[in-house]
């Protein structure tokens, strides 16, 4: 009788478990991803998030698009209030701000044990931008840099055999090709008072022996004097002080500038819009054979340290990385890895330009890394604006920037 009662109770318990089973089935783990992709057109993060959801049943990605100017502050606020996403994509110079504060998860060991992510495959610059104090806090998402686009037809008309390789040659060529009375400028670039201005000016500082910590170099002063003279003489448009890279390159595409400093993100648009023969060369140096430098652009992906699901978040990260070979063919972005060969497009100008940018990437240096990058960047682009508008001499502007940087950067 006692035995039967036990069997009965066991049977009831088993039945209850069977009935309750479906209602307590484990729900998929939700991983939130924030990025700027998808704001204007489809990008890697929004595309890969959707595809991941189509393949996964135990992990679901909840994706959110934010604006470029808002994502850093929005993520900082979310981190401070305990509502941060699991994964966020940030412009590479902003990464150190989060890594140094412990806001990103240290994934060094996870990467070492990964069959998908190989840290050794990444270019040095992009890898440095996700490294802090010798540890990995993320993975490069994609990269880019800047070079010098030139109008071959205009060079030929001016009797210039080769695109300029030094800044002296750059100025001479720009002055020879400029036709201010016809609204045609010798060159264009972005000296805007924001990160784009720093992005294009910092390489000049670096190739003249400086760094983001040491900005008042002789070469930087000479370059600012050169550009100001070109603006004053109508060789460059006054608009370079307010134009972003997209708009300044548009001036080149329309045939109203003979040269433009810009990046590979413009190639596709240039192929469609530029009704002339064009090419790309490496950024000029101060003297032939001098040290080269270029800006390191692109975004990174990091897992927030507050995530409740680090293993699942890392699986999402691995999936994103596994799609790196699609970055250029589908989105026009350059992979941050040297083990991915870009396919030939069959478009001669495009393929030739890509080879130049891949060469330029060898000399690209990260902005920072520094946890106070935003303050450093502001000091740099403020100095550029002050010098090019004539509010200060180049030496005064860069001296002021150096003083600001010295006060915020702690070695």
Automatic annotation (TrEMBL):
Keywords (A to Z) from UniProt: Periplasm, Signal, Transport
CDD domains, sorted: PBP2_TMBP_like
A Pfam entry, by short name: SBP_bac_8
Cellular component annotations (GO), alphabetically ordered: ATP-binding cassette (ABC) transporter complex, substrate-binding subunit-containing
GO process terms (BP): maltodextrin transmembrane transport; maltose transport
InterPro entries named in the record: SBP
Signal peptide, first to last residue: 1-25
GO MF, one example: maltose binding
Name under which the protein is recorded: Sugar ABC transporter substrate-binding protein
Lineage of the organism: Bacteria, Pseudomonadati, Pseudomonadota, Alphaproteobacteria, Hyphomicrobiales
């Amino acid at each position: 009788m006692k035995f039967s009662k036990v069997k009965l109770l066991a049977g009831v318990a088993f039945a209850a478990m069977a009935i309750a089973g479906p209602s307590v089935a484990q729900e998929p783990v939700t991983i939130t991803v924030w990025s700027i992709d998808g704001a204007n057109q489809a990008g890697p993060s929004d595309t890969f998030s959707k595809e991941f959801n189509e393949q996964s049943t135990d992990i679901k990605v909840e994706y959110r698009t934010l604006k470029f100017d808002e994502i850093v502050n929005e993520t900082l606020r979310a981190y401070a209030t305990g509502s941060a996403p699991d994964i966020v994509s940030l412009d590479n110079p902003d990464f150190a701000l989060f890594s140094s504060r412990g806001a990103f998860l240290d994934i060094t060991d996870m990467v070492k044990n990964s069959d998908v992510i190989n840290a050794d495959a990444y270019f040095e610059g992009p890898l440095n931008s996700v490294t802090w104090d010798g540890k990995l806090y993320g993975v490069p998402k994609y990269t880019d840099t800047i070079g010098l686009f030139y109008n071959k037809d205009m060079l030929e008309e001016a009797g210039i055999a080769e695109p300029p390789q030094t800044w002296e040659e750059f100025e001479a060529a720009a002055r020879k090709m400029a036709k201010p009375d016809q609204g045609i400028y010798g060159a264009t670039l972005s000296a805007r008072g924001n990160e784009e201005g720093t992005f294009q000016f910092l390489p000049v500082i670096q190739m003249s022996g400086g760094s983001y910590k040491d900005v008042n170099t002789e070469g930087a002063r000479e370059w600012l004097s050169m550009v100001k003279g070109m603006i004053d003489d109508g060789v460059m448009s006054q608009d370079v002080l307010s134009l972003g890279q997209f708009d300044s390159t548009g001036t080149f595409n329309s045939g109203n500038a003979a040269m433009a400093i810009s990046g590979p993100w413009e190639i596709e648009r240039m192929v469609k819009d530029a009704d002339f023969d064009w090419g790309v060369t490496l950024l000029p140096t101060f003297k032939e054979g001098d040290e080269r430098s270029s800006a390191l652009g692109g975004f990174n992906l990091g897992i927030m340290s507050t995530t409740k699901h680090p293993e699942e978040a890392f699986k999402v990260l691995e999936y994103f990385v596994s799609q790196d070979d699609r970055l250029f063919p589908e989105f026009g972005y350059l992979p941050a890895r040297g083990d991915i060969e870009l396919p030939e497009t069959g478009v001669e100008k495009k393929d030739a330009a890509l080879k130049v940018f891949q060469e330029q990437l060898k000399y690209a240096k990260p902005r920072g890394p520094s946890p106070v990058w935003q303050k450093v960047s502001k000091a740099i682009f403020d100095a550029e604006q002050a010098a090019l508008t004539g509010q200060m001499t180049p030496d005064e502007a860069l001296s002021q920037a150096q003083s600001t940087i010295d006060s915020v950067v702690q070695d």
